[in-house]
Amino acid sequence: MQGLITLDFGNSNPHAGLFQKVQGKWDLIKVVPWSELQIYTNQLGMSAHNTSVVLCEVKAREEELAPLQEQGYLITRVKEYWRGTRFAGMPVNYAKTLGEDRLIEAYYCYKKEKIPTLLIDAGTFVTMDIVTENGFMGGYIIPGTEAYFSTYGKGEQLKDVPLTLNFKHQLPQETADAITESYSAFAALAKSLISEHKIQKIVLTGGLTSLWEGFFTAEKTGLVVEGHPHLIHWALQYWMTTQIEPL
Predict the structure, then answer these.
(1) In angstroms, rounded to a whole number, what is the distance separating the alpha carbons of residues 225 and 155?
(2) What is the DSSP letter of 17?
(3) Mean pLDDT, 10 residues at a time, over the chain (247 residues)?
(4) What distance in Å separates the CA atoms of residue 48 and residue 198, rounded to the nearest whole number?
(5) Which secondary-structure segment (H or E) carries 137?
(6) How far apart are CA 175 and CA 157, in angstroms?
(7) Which H helix or E strand runs over 146?
(8) Which of 47, 57, 124, 183 could disulfide-link 9, Cβ–Cβ 3.0 to 4.6 Å?
């Protein structure tokens, strides 16, 4: 058995993907919180002797990685291969400040989709990135719903308004709806990107995927909208097994 652990150390909720290669095919067995990784590697018989580790980190957690390294795991880090203008053959039209999560997900779309794609990772923050046959073209970062709605706490008459993520996609006539529906303005930004860059497909990932699926359903773009809940892990697996260690 060959194993691979993909680590996503984002802004919050670090987690791990556990892959195993069975009969020549890689399967994602489970995605687990970082705090539970040791439990599941033991259950699956994964160890430093048969398993590689690849890490994408937005927020460094060196002390937390120490136990893995003490067990003998060698950790491949995306940042050590990110030079600034190209990544594994993909042109990158963005400053070196580009987050590793955005980079690796864009690389996966670049290699797999091969058409103009709008990639949206909707989590604590939401990124909207354009990937075409010419590489990573750039994109936007906007607040996730929790961060966005927290700004209304500064309004004396708005801070106690109860909110629910129940979008009606119509002109609001009540304060709670006026606040909630305002978030859909970001969907207009996405629609503009679709038109400007002649997007042919939308790829969604992250905890707020269903919210954005609703936006695009309401917008009636006519494009293929694909939800990919574990995109970061499949992207790391693909890069690791095709570019670093042909496992």
Answers:
(1) 36
(2) E
(3) 93 91 94 96 96 92 89 94 91 94 97 96 95 97 92 83 76 89 91 96 94 87 91 97 84
(4) 45
(5) strand 135-143
(6) 10
(7) helix 145-150
(8) 57
